[in-house]
From TrEMBL:
Residues 202-300 form the HTH araC/xylS-type domain. It comes from the Bacteria. It comes from Anaerostipes caccae (strain DSM 14662 / CCUG 47493 / JCM 13470 / NCIMB 13811 / L1-92). This is Transcriptional regulator, AraC family. GO terms for molecular function: DNA-binding transcription factor activity; sequence-specific DNA binding. Keywords: DNA-binding, Transcription, Transcription regulation. SMART domains: HTH_ARAC (SM00342). Coiled coil: none annotated. InterPro entries: AraC-bd (IPR003313), Homeodomain-like_sf (IPR009057), HTH-like (IPR037923), HTH_AraC (IPR018060), HTH_AraC-typ_CS (IPR018062), RmlC-like_jellyroll (IPR014710), Tscrpt_reg_AraC-type_HTH (IPR020449).
Amino acid sequence: MKERANILRQIETDQNFRELNQTLDQRFPIWASSDSFFRYYNRYFRCHWHPEIEFSVITEGECIYEAGDRVYELKKGDGIFINQNVLHMAEMKGKLECRFGVVRAEAFFLGGSTESLIYRKFMEPVINNPEISCVPFYGDIPWQKRLMRQLAELIRIYEERPEGFELMMTSGFSLLWLEFVKALGEEKGNAVSINKDAERIRKGISYIQRNYTKKITLKDIAEICQSCQSECCRMFRNVVKESPIEYVNTYRIRRSLILIEEGTYSMTEIAQKTGFSGSSYFTEVFKKKMGCTPSKYKGSKEIYKRVKNNHCIKN
């Protein structure tokens, strides 16, 4: 299949990597969608988490999915379950389009509240289990293949919205979840331990975002993460795909975009206000991350609009 034009969307997150793109309607807290990696900048989902549980199925092509401390190569017919509050990311594999479907729901969706019998008996044992951060599914395993078919049907119902689709979604998700939890009881080996690295570096990320205007060293970040410097680097690369200092520079560049947009300060002043040691180093890092100099970025409406609307910061 030929490649299509990239629409340059991106997963937006807050300072703690919580996703901001999708908010569920609490009156009916389930959402489903079909999508394509071609619609995302660099065909990549940046590191993020959300408080809802999520099932994904690959409907075309291949992708690489990272969740917990594992990396999975998923192809057409495969899928994955992501538990609530688990950091994860994904990218397309190869040049052929990778399409996928997603069903996301609040954990209390089936029972109506966290006090219900359904929630306590069927949901809570899974979502609060630290050994179940994610579970991959493969199309050549019978029960997992059935699960992926059920998932695809839920996505179809949600997108077409026939009369009574709310009841159809509720009953369909109930059957999907029942098969899932029964199989988990039989195949616990598929569950992946929660990524403790992610929990530790959240402290480091928070520290960076509070102190980016000051001098920050690897030693400072490692101390906040309660690790040695080499372990700190390993954790950051494992979770956010950047070293701690690379992440510091990425965050400083993001903050510099706001000041450039304001148009109040010179580039030298912006470099100082965002923690860079000098304007030349600021320009060097900016060009590496953004693909152009700060001055060209400021002067070109086309580049400015593209980056502002789509958060196109290079890794």
